[in-house]
Automatic annotation (TrEMBL):
It holds the Pfam family AAA_12. GO terms for cellular component: chromosome. PANTHER family: MAMMARY TURMOR VIRUS RECEPTOR HOMOLOG 1, 2 MTVR1, 2, TPR AND ANKYRIN REPEAT-CONTAINING PROTEIN 1. Keywords: ATP-binding, Helicase, Hydrolase, Nucleotide-binding. Residues 3-198 form the DNA2/NAM7 helicase-like C-terminal domain. SUPFAM superfamilies: P-loop containing nucleoside triphosphate hydrolases. The keyword Lyase does not apply. The keyword Hydrolase applies. Residues 707-796 form the UvrD-like helicase ATP-binding domain. One of its GO terms (molecular function) is hydrolase activity. This is UvrD-like helicase ATP-binding domain-containing protein.
């Protein structure tokens, strides 16, 4: 077979063979051992190598023609996760030997070639990296570094062989390969210097045992420790390596003892993780440690004309570290910090420094003066600290936005930076350098997102440090989820310190307030029980993994535990949590902090009650699960079949209702009224009824700014009664039935599960009042234990309708007023404190062009449906950006076919959209249609699926064309006339606004808001027809919020961005965490 070479076959076939037994390459001192070991002494030395003149020019070199240099202080390690070994002490010795030869060669007038050989690729790479281009310009002096295999058939004047292996067991790996050893030992003409650990090689029991013994007999072994220069070098490298390796130890004092706080930008993190050489990574970290300790270079690394020199540029190998001194405020004092911006190649430095100069030009003179001040201790710079009462203002102009009185349109005069969102210095995340951060960086294998806590804004810090129950409002991209997760992690760390007294090694994740450490009980309950709840299974999966990563980071564990979920893991809400029991009774410690969906929360409450709500529905299936344990897949499927969702309501129930009752109503309107108000309004009555009576429901017309009058509410209540009757007959239930049953059981039986210390609810706008009220049973820490976050502008869940003021009122009636402590307070005339409401207004996702369009939607919601959305100050943005684009086509072809057909025909390949681009459509039917057209050229999502996600570019397709409002969008013209956006004299026909007729407009505007705010950079909106989109398009055009572009080949090419396989892999990670199973086919 192929195991036998052609040469071997000739020998087997008895062809005559002739041994070439004279070698003309090696000095006899070099050929002696391989001749005896591999060729049975049959090789003779040629007359040329035996001549005294052959080696006379090399006698002055310190280690002669043949030497084994014994380096015992080296340490073998593997590069990253690969199998290739390296030995950095040997690398340093090899570089020293080359330098020694170079100094000797400079006095000679002849050429010299040096070959550095090692059997390990990692060692070759390390030597190449450290060697760089140092000798490339030295004519006549040639150095090349190759693997043993790469040197086969090659020769050089001097060969330096690095054997790498250094261990006490004599393990030498494929150094034991005789053929490789033979090649390595026979490449030199005049000198062969072998660098290695004699003890390791001798113990191996291979040819190397004989080589070391032979060198000993010939007195050719030289101990590195006997040479003062090499000894000093080895010790220096050893000390450096030991210090860097300390970065991987949880008890490292390297960072906790630094004088300066060092923060790293996300761009630096990305650049760092792209470094292939682990040693280069360590070199960069070493430079950061030295900067943090106060070291400053006096060498000018790079001359960049026309800059203020606030930005510093330090060279690390062939790269440049760009950093500056900045000022930070903490606990009433200002102090200097080091802000690291990026790690760049030389050609990219000038552009980045110029961009930084533009940023610094926005700073006030006072702020710059504080940044530039220098304080020294000996030869080191130390950070200055100021205890001053007044603020040091950073920016020249106040960028806090004030809404226009007239239209609530965002004023973009506050935006200060004109750059892409992805390149913005003002929106960039920063991470504090700590032992945990260093550990992450050293072990990171790609540029994907890693769970490292980033620096928080002052606004976020205030909320996290606030000790009481609170409500957080914020539009899309303002950091609500960040605040919740960091608050949760803060409590975890406080619990850790209180129970174990742990030192956090500098990895304080969220501004931990050590003065406010809560006392914990002794015994098994001496840990904090926290629950994080959100409705979306996709978002819950992402948050669960993020919290897990942050928790590991905080305890010093940065092991490579992938957070990527398989697609089938998120197919089913309940299946994802099968490892968590369906009850709150004695839940094991390891399940906390508990991150679950609201549906899983309900199942756990149900499992804690004496009688399950589902007993009446699956009767004979009771035996298919153990009480309190996670339900089997069969039972979960059965439950899903029996549940009435909006889709089932609209498809199977709605057509069967009395047509006289449903006339002029939309199914979504009635479903919302039933779920949110008739069955979703919380009641304090005892026993718990679970629904509003007809009279109470009809009276809502008078109690709130209602879109429905008494007569319409009366008809809706009749529909509700029909619905309940049909549902009972079909033995089905809706989520409100489940929730109300739990309330009834908990009121009559009481709650017998574990009490939770803290509850965090994200996207709270997706829950009804009765659903939120269930939380009071599991957490009695009313004063401090709840954190609610959401945005009523993003309420696109079917059947949900409430404002944050409603939930604050609920908290007063269902949480505070019902607790015994609060009741006692009321008896004594004490005022019950309503929890604080915080608003997050700084947008970190996108630019002002998108924010202005989003605010235009909010203005419509405020005008038409003031009771359905909380009015907040417009978001602030720091980055200018291009206006969203309305795409127009010059033919009747489907726009999707124009875009993606063009990519096929014009460019000859399937370029399509990149990993950070998405097509958004209204529903699953539209999604399937588009996927059939574009195939795998683009990611396609519905608006519901994309909630909570973000992309660089978004194409919103046919939103208005598929809208159930159809011509009713023309009601917007009335608003435009009312606000003088268009002249009253313009003859445009439009209906007058009627809340009952235009009720769907509210949900349509909220869906549009969600879709618009998914993009970070570019937004394109295209429609197949102008019939329904014209009113909104005219609105945007009048406000100068959009640009109209013709969909031609040049625009199509500009829209499409290529992505690398790494980009798609990283996006695939996010898909695994966040998207539906049906997306798998697109990757």
């Amino acid at each position: 077979g192929f195991e036998t070479s052609l040469f071997g076959r000739l020998v087997m076939l008895k062809f005559d063979k002739h041994l070439l037994n004279i070698q003309y390459r090696m000095n006899p001192c070099i050929s002696l051992f391989p001749n005896a070991q591999f060729y049975e002494r049959k090789i003779l030395d040629g007359s040329n190598v035996l001549s005294p003149s052959y080696n006379k020019d090399y006698t002055c070199l310190p280690f002669g023609s043949y030497t084994f240099i014994n380096v015992t202080d080296g340490r073998e390690d593997k590069e990253g996760k690969g199998n290739s070994h390296r030995n950095m002490v040997e690398v340093a010795v090899v570089l020293h030997l080359i330098h020694t030869i170079f100094k000797s060669w400079k006095n000679r007038n002849q050429g010299l070639s040096i070959g550095v050989v090692s059997p390990y690729k990692a060692q070759v790479d390390a030597i190449k990296s450290r060697l760089g281009e140092k000798y490339d310009t030295c004519d006549g002096f040639h150095v090349r570094v190759k693997s043993t295999d790469g040197f086969q058939g090659e020769e050089d004047d001097i060969i330096i062989l690095s054997t790498v292996r250094s261990n006490g067991r004599g393990v030498v790996g494929f150094l034991a390969d005789n053929r490789r050893t033979n090649v390595a030992l026979t490449r030199a003409r005049h000198c062969l210097w072998i660098v290695g650990n004699a003890h390791t090689l001798y113990k191996s029991g291979t040819e190397w045992t004989e080589l070391v013994a032979d060198a000993e007999r010939r007195k050719c072994v030289f101990s590195a420790t006997n040479d003062a220069t090499i000894c000093k070098l080895v010790l220096q490298v050893k000390q450096e390596l030991d210090e860097l390796d300390d970065l991987l130890n949880a008890d490292s004092a390297v960072f906790s003892n630094t004088r300066w706080k060092v923060i790293l930008s996300d761009e630096f993190r990305k650049s760092f993780t792209k470094l292939k050489s682990p040693q280069l990574r360590k070199e960069v970290l070493q430079k950061l440690i030295r900067l943090g300790d106060g070291w400053r270079t006096t060498v000018k690394n790079l001359d960049i004309p026309g800059v203020s020199h606030l930005a510093k540029v330090y060279k690390v190998w062939n790269l440049y570290l760009v950093w500056s001194t900045d000022v930070e405020k903490t606990e009433g004092r200002y102090f200097q910090i080091i802000r690291v911006w990026d790690l760049l190649s030389q050609q990219n430095v000038a552009r980045t420094v110029q961009r930084l100069e533009n940023l610094f030009s926005m700073y006030t003179d006072d702020y710059l003066d504080h940044c530039r001040r220098v304080q020294t201790q000996g030869k080191l710079e130390v950070p200055m600290v100021w205890h001053i009462e007044h603020d040091i203002i950073r920016y020249n102009k106040d960028y806090k936005v004030v809404a226009h009185e007239e239209h609530d349109v965002v004023d973009t005069s506050y935006a200060m930076e004109n750059s892409k969102v992805s390149e913005s210095f003002l929106l960039m995340k920063f991470y504090s350098l700590s032992s945990g951060m260093a550990k992450h960086l050293l072990t990171a294998t790609d540029g994907s997102e890693i769970d490292i806590p980033f620096e928080l804004t002052d606004e976020e810090q205030i909320i996290i440090q606030f000790p009481l129950t609170s409500f957080i409002l914020g539009r899309s991209g303002t950091g609500k989820t960040t605040v919740l997760t960091m608050k949760l992690i803060q409590k975890e760390q406080q619990s850790l310190i209180a129970s174990q007294g742990l030192h956090l090694d500098g990895d304080d994740l969220s501004g931990l307030d050590h003065k406010n450490i809560m006392p914990l009980k002794d015994g098994r309950e001496s840990f904090v029980k926290q629950v994080f709840i959100t409705v979306s299974p996709k978002l819950c999966s992402a948050i669960k993994n993020h919290i897990s990563g942050l928790k590991r980071f905080g305890t010093g564990d940065v092991s490579d535990q992938s957070s990527i979920l398989h697609m089938h893991d998120i197919m089913d809400d309940l299946e994802e949590f099968t490892e968590i029991p369906d009850n709150f009774c004695d839940l094991p410690h390891e399940h906390y902090p508990l991150t679950i969906t609201y549906r899983k929360f309900l199942m756990m409450l149900d499992g804690t009650c004496r009688t399950s709500f589902f007993d009446a529905f699956y009767g004979e299936m009771k035996t298919s699960f153990e009480r309190g344990h996670s339900r089997s897949h069969a039972v979960q499927t059965f439950i899903e079949l029996k549940e009435v969702t909006y889709e089932k309501f609209a498809t199977f129930y709605w057509p069967r209702f009395n047509a006289d009752l449903t006339k002029k109503f939309a199914a979504s309107t009635v479903f919302t009224e039933i779920i949110s108000h008739i069955k979703g309004a919380y009641q304090t009555s005892r026993p718990y009824v679970g629904k509003l009576g007809r009279e109470d429901y009809v009276m809502l017309s008078d109690k709130r700014f209602s879109s429905l009058n008494n007569e319409k509410r009366d008809r809706i209540y009749d529909i509700f009664l029909e619905y309940e009757s049909m549902k009972c007959t079909a033995k089905e239930f809706d989520l409100s039935d489940f929730v109300n049953s739990l309330h009834s059981s908990l009121v009559s039986e009481g709650y017998h599960g574990d009490m939770v210390d803290f509850v965090y609810i994200d996207e709270v706008q997706d829950l009804t009042m009765t659903q939120i009220a269930l939380l009071k049973y599991v957490c009695m820490n009313i004063k401090e234990g709840f954190l609610f976050a959401g945005d009523t502008a993003q309420t696109i869940a079917r059947g949900i309708d409430f404002r944050f003021e409603d939930i604050r009122s609920l908290f007063y009636t269902a949480f505070l007023a019902e607790t015994e402590a609060s009741n006692q307070g009321l008896k004594h005339g004490k005022k019950v404190h309503l929890s604080d409401m915080f608003q997050l207004s700084q947008n970190f996702r996108t630019h002002c062009g998108i924010l202005r369009m989003a605010q235009s939607i909010m203005s419509l919601l405020y005008f038409f449906f003031p009771s359905s959305v909380d009015k907040l100050n417009p978001e602030t943005g720091l980055v200018y950006g291009e206006a969203p684009v309305l795409l127009e086509s010059d033919n009747d072809e489907n726009a999707i076919m124009t875009i993606f057909g063009e990519s096929k025909t014009t460019h000859g390949n399937l370029r399509g959209f990149g990993a950070e681009q998405v097509i958004l459509v209204r529903d699953d039917a539209a999604k399937k249609q588009i996927i059939d057209l574009v195939g795998k050229q683009a990611l396609v999502l519905t608006i519901v699926e994309c909630k909570g996600l973000e992309f660089q570019d978004v194409l919103l397709y046919n939103f208005f064309g598929s809208s159930p409002l159809r011509n009713k969008w023309r009601v917007l013209y009335g608003y435009m006339k009312d606000k003088n956006i268009i002249a009253h004299s313009e003859e445009i026909s439009h209906p007058g606004f009627d809340r009952s007729k235009h009720y769907l407009l509210c949900s349509e505007l909220k869906q549009l808001y969600v879709a618009i705010t998914r993009t970070r950079q570019r937004l394109w909106i295209c429609e197949n027809t102008e019939n329904y989109c014209r009113p909104m398009f005219d609105y945007w055009k009048k406000l100068c919020l959009v640009e109209v572009r013709l969909l031609d080949s040049s625009l199509i090419q500009a829209m499409q961005t290529g992505s690398s396989s790494d980009d798609w892999r990283i996006r695939g990670t996010k898909v695994g965490d966040l998207y539906l199973f049906s997306l798998e086919s697109q990757f």
